């Protein structure tokens, strides 16, 4: 997968050099580039912001550097290969007023050939950029959650990590992706490792029993209890057919 992030702080993305995503980049599974928006300015001060029309606090990101930066990552301009996906690349705009990011969206995005992230700062990007971009990209505003960050970079890092680990080959054992929180609409069951007694605290006995049916039932019940306690709204969203099928298999 090709991922381009446009930002005024490309160094924030240096963390993508390490751990599983660093290895995925080395292995060629993830082709990530951070582009400095200031490289697309034309004035001596490399200005990317200006005061808002209509007044108000803060600054707004100017449209022209964004247009030039976005044009530079379009397939055919930056990478012109015969097997390029004919569909438009997906431009993700991190913003607190976007669709809330979740595991289902991460999974859908993990099938894309190219993702472009436009990291806003200040009060955000001039709205006309999205209108202009909509015939060159599929444009999707996405929020990390109902709070306000200083910039899009941290939100984009979280999204890249959630999406990147779903790309085949990035996580060594694909089984570990299946039994995770939010994959089936529930939170994950509690996990334990050795020693079985630690500071007078015991691992639940059933997990030492070797009885796979009982273990699966224990974990399913723990998932349901934990989800009901911590995120009751998720229980309403799950497909009863899925829950029943899993329980039936035990
Ligand atoms: N004035 C904007 C508003 O009220 O919606 C907030 C601007 S915020 C200070 C600056 C940038 O941080 C945004 O343009 C966006 O890129 C990013 N950002 C802030 N909170 C975010 C969130 N919850 N999810 C995704 N991106 C966020």
From TrEMBL:
Subcellular location: Cytoplasm
Biological-process GO terms, alphabetical: tRNA N1-guanine methylation
MF GO annotations: tRNA (guanine(37)-N1)-methyltransferase activity
Pfam families noted in UniProt: tRNA_m1G_MT (PF01746)
Binding annotation for S-adenosyl-L-methionine: 120, 144-149
Statement: the UniProt record of this protein carries the keyword S-adenosyl-L-methionine: yes
Family annotation (Gene3D superfamilies): 3.40.1280.10, tRNA(m1g37)methyltransferase, domain 2
Cellular component GO terms held in the UniProt record: cytosol
tRNA methyltransferase TRMD/TRM10-type domain sequence ranges: 1-235
Catalysed reaction equations from the record: guanosine(37) in tRNA + S-adenosyl-L-methionine = N(1)-methylguanosine(37) in tRNA + S-adenosyl-L-homocysteine + H(+)
Protein family (similarity comment): Belongs to the RNA methyltransferase TrmD family.
Function statement: Specifically methylates guanosine-37 in various tRNAs.
SUBUNIT field: Homodimer.
Identification of the protein by name: tRNA (guanine-N(1)-)-methyltransferase
Organism whose genome encodes this protein: Neomicrococcus aestuarii
Organism taxonomic ancestry: Bacteria, Bacillati, Actinomycetota, Actinomycetes, Micrococcales
């Amino acid at each position: 997968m090709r991922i381009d992030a446009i930002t005024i702080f490309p160094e924030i993305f240096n963390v993508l050099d390490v751990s599983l995503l660093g290895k995925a980049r080395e292995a060629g599974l993830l082709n990530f580039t951070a582009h400095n928006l200031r490289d697309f300015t034309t004035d001596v001060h490399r200005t990317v912001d200006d005061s808002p029309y209509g007044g108000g606090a803060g600054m707004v990101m100017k449209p022209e550097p964004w247009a030039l930066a976005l044009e530079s990552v379009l397939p055919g301009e930056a990478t012109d290969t015969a097997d390029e996906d004919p569909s438009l690349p997906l431009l993700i705009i991190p913003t607190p007023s976007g669709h809330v990011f979740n595991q289902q969206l991460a999974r859908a995005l993990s099938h894309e050939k190219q993702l472009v992230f436009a990291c806003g700062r200040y009060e955000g990007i001039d709205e006309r950029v999205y209108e202009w971009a909509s015939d060159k990209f599929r444009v999707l505003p996405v929020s990390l959650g109902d709070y306000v960050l200083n910039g899009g970079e941290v939100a984009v890092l979280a999204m890249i990590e959630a999406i990147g680990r779903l790309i085949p080959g990035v996580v060594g054992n694909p089984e570990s992706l299946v039994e995770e929180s939010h994959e089936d609409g529930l939170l994950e069951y509690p996990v334990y490792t050795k020693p079985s007694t630690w500071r007078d605290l015991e691992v639940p006995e059933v997990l030492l029993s070797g009885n796979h049916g009982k273990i699966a039932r224990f974990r399913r019940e723990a998932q349901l209890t934990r989800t009901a306690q911590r995120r009751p709204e998720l229980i309403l969203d799950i497909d009863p057919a899925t829950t029943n099928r899993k329980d039936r298999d035990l």
